[in-house]
Amino acid sequence: MIKIYLKQAWELLKQNPLFSSLYVVGTGLAIAMTMIMAVVYYVKIAPVYPEVNRMNTLYLTNSRFQKGEGDHKSTFQWGFSLKAVQEWFYPVENATVVSASLQNDMTENSYIQPSDRSGDFSVSLKLVDPNFFRIYSFRFLEGQAFTASDLESGIATAVITEELSRRLFGTVEGVVGRSFSLNYADYRVCGVVRGASFLTSKSYAQVYMPYSVAKGYQEPKYDIPYLGAYGVTFMVEDDAQAKALRAEIDEVLRKVNLVHKDEWTVSIWDQPTSHLLSAFKQYAGQEFDTWATVRHFLLVLLVLLLVPALNLSGMIASRMESRLTEMGVRKSFGAGRGSLLSQVMWENLLLTLLGGLLGLLLAWLGLYLCREWVFSVFESWPSALPEGVEVRVSGEMLFAPLVFLAALLLCVALNMLSALLPAWHSLRKPIIYSLNEKR
């Protein structure tokens, strides 16, 4: 019976090309817009290369130090000094991996001087420790990460991406041990990795170096020995350990504030922040309202899916009026209301599935062609794309079956509901009315 319904649906689709086209295109656009929004947030929060440990990663990026009292009170907001990292965070017990990174002028403005003298070009640089490569699962094409001994001794070594390797040396093979010039200093390559996408901002860079190569990497800021430009990333086993880690850090800072209460006090808001929350918070001190965020996304989904469904419902009601004679004839030959309703639903299901396929193709096309801006369209403060950097959208970002299936099922449910109501209303009319209805 289902096979017969689908054949009838296909014939009706060909007989009514305008209605069918509008239905398929309307459904396709609704699914495409929903898919685009879903994929944008999927890329932000799902475990994608090399940030495959996102669900077990927490970030501590900012601190607030306060000195003095009353009118003489001063507030300093920045990161942490190396002294703070070494004394407060590296020794924590409730984390499987702790990694620190330095954000300074070197990470913001670094230029490579190619050996062929073709002209300096800027690169994205991260100053990290070896544990960085334990949290972020980079695939090494050659060599390995720098070691703890390299970090301690300040050896000028670097891990580079395969794209940069090809640009500098024309290959990714036999690169380990070769040198390149960055800011007019020579650095030896110790490893080549498959690069991260610019969309995975926590791990993205073109060059990774020990933070000890930076000038003044041990110096604190503003005469506060624990204030600096370091951020800390933690990897935990589960939510229970994450909760224990936050409690442990709060206890460390409580003791620190007691010891230095006559000099300054330090606070870190609600950090360390989970990766999920960091995707929605623009800065560490921002208040996050879960229900407000949920309401926002529900409203967006209503606009993207419910409005097209209502329009389709009107189209279906108009079409059902034109098919009353057909339905009346079938009723007179013994067709039940349930049988006729099933036929209408299968017709709309076929059109919805065709629309889903169109929507999937449109979403992929839009995400790929507009990738330089579409992934930042929902951000309050989008970061500018560095010069010469291409936003790479990998297959695992685009081909997310569960995301598409969820969007399709939601759209199918709404479309079926939009078809059911007008169809049910039309089929309730008496046979005499249906047979006398003129097309």
Any overview of this molecule?
- By secondary structure, the chain is an alpha+beta fold.
- The chain has three domains: 2-49 and 290-436, no CATH class; 63-104 and 217-268, no CATH class; 107-215, no CATH class.
- It is 49% helix and 16% strand.
- The strands form two sheets. Strands 1, 4, 5, 6, 7, 8, 9, 10, 11, 12, 14 and 16 form a twelve-stranded mixed beta sheet that branches.
- A hairpin with a 6-residue loop joins strand 2 (63-67) and strand 3 (74-80).
- Helix 2 (17-45) crosses helix 12 (337-369), helix 10 packs across helix 15 (401-427) and helix 12 (337-369) runs antiparallel to helix 15.
- The longest helix has 33 residues, at 290-322.
- The protein is globular, with a radius of gyration of 30 Å.
- The model has no long low-confidence stretch (mean pLDDT 82).
Compact overview of the structure:
The chain is an alpha+beta fold and 439 residues long.
Main pleated sheet: 12 strands, mixed
Number of helical segments with 4 or more residues: 16
In the predicted model, the low-confidence regions spanning at least 5 consecutive residues are none
Q: How big is the Rg? A: 30 Å
Number of strands: 16
Please, how many domains?
A: 3
Proportion in β-strands: 15-25%
What is the arithmetic mean of pLDDT? Answer: 82
